[in-house]
Design brief:
Elements (H helix, E strand, L loop, with lengths): L2 H15 L3 E5 L6 E2 H10 L4 H9 L1 H11 L1 H13 L3 H24 L2 E3 L1 H14 L10 H4 L1
Antiparallel strand pairs: 1-2, 1-3
Helix pairs in contact: 1-7, 2-4, 3-4, 4-6, 5-6
Length: 144
């Protein structure tokens, strides 16, 4: 499988994940779609509710804030890859991967669990950002 096909597959999974249920609450039926999760993590930290969370549960506040940065950082990585800025793309990839656990803090504190949309979201991003490490001839000189 070529690098371009891996990237396309990753982007397809990433985009599809937004329209699927990403998390389910233990105490409720149904769940929250990926696009809603993305929106909530972007807006909650900056509103009145976010300030309340900051004062009452600072770990949860920063988990929401940092989780909200995952999608923008992923988009930055795509742009950096297109511009062939490999070193910066690699730095942002490490940051991206380090942000993933913050979602799990939210899951734990809100008594939620990830479902299909979440796992496709993560898989799609990983396929795109790690696509250069799959297949093809990849030498140490070209990795730098």
């Amino acid at each position: 499988m070529t690098k371009h096909l891996i990237i396309l597959a990753g982007l397809a999974l990433y985009l599809t994940s937004f329209f699927l249920v990403a998390v389910s609450a233990v105490s409720a039926s149904g769940g929250i779609h990926g696009y809603h999760c993305a929106w909530l993590t972007l807006i909650i930290p900056w509103g009145r509710d976010g300030m309340n969370v900051l004062h009452e549960q600072p770990v949860q506040y920063f988990s929401i804030l940092l989780s909200g940065w995952i999608n923008p950082i992923f988009l930055i990585i795509i742009v950096l890859q297109l511009l062939r800025k490999k070193r910066f793309a690699n730095i942002f990839t490490v940051v991206l991967i380090l942000l993933f656990p913050f979602c799990w803090i939210i899951f734990y504190q809100e008594h939620m669990h990830p479902v299909t949309g979440y796992f496709l979201w993560i898989l799609g991003m990983l396929l795109v950002v790690l696509s250069g490490r799959f297949g093809g001839s990849h030498t140490a000189a070209s990795a730098a």
